Amino acid sequence: MMIIDGEGCVLGRLASVTSKNLLEGEEVVILNAEKIMLTGNKDWAYAKYKQRVDRASISNPRDLGPKYPRRPDDIFRRTVRGMLPFKKSKGKTAYKGLKAFVGVPAEYADAELTAVPEAEYGDLKKGIELGEISKLLGATF
After folding, report:
1. pLDDT tens track for 46-91
2. How far apart are CA 4 and CA 17, in angstroms?
3. What's the N-to-C CA distance of the chain in angstroms?
4. How far apart (Å, rounded) are the C-alpha atoms in residues 52 and 65?
5. How many CA atoms lie within 13 A of 97 on its CB side?
6. May I ask which residue range the UniProt record assigns to the signal sequence (predicted)?
7. In the chain, pLDDT over 70 holds for what percent of residues?
8. 9: Cβ contacts below 8 Å, ≥ 6 apart
9. What is the architecture, at CATH level 2, of domain 2-137?
């Protein structure tokens, strides 16, 4: 089992590393999902996610999808799902091995964390945390 602290990691880079490990059969746990960074312009990032969340059918907006998440842990899970062959049994099995949490649950409080240096945010100037985007979208966590 691989336990990763998402604080200071870039969303796409962390998701690609996570999806690769999931396809290899490893279980992955992501902590502090609200502190994962999304690079780029803040207004553009918010507009992109707002457009996805607001997309609905005219005939019956509550029943028809696609339904996009608002919480930061669910946004991360959805991002990883897009990198897996989710419509095949191999991808669904891999996706079930992913757990993402806002904050650090008690069961993982003193667990040994795995570092992912290729996913670190570094000194990039533009960016926004998933927690900020989620609050702008109306999520409560």
Report:
1. 999 999 888 766 677 667 777 889 999 999 999 999 999 999 999 9
2. 11
3. 26
4. 10
5. 22
6. none
7. 96
8. 36, 37, 116, 119, 120, 121
9. Alpha-Beta Complex (3.90)
Domain range summary for the chain, segments of one domain joined by +: 2-137
82 φψ region: left (φ > 0), alpha (ψ -120 to 50), beta (else): alpha
Pick 23 or 52 by higher pLDDT: 23
| Tokens 């891999």 found at | 94
- For residue 67, which amino acid is it? K
CB atoms within 10 A of CB 55: 13
Mean per-residue pLDDT over the chain, rounded: 93
Query: Is residue 83 within 8 Å of residue 15, measured between CB atoms?
Result: yes
Separation CA 77–CA 79 (nearest Å): 5
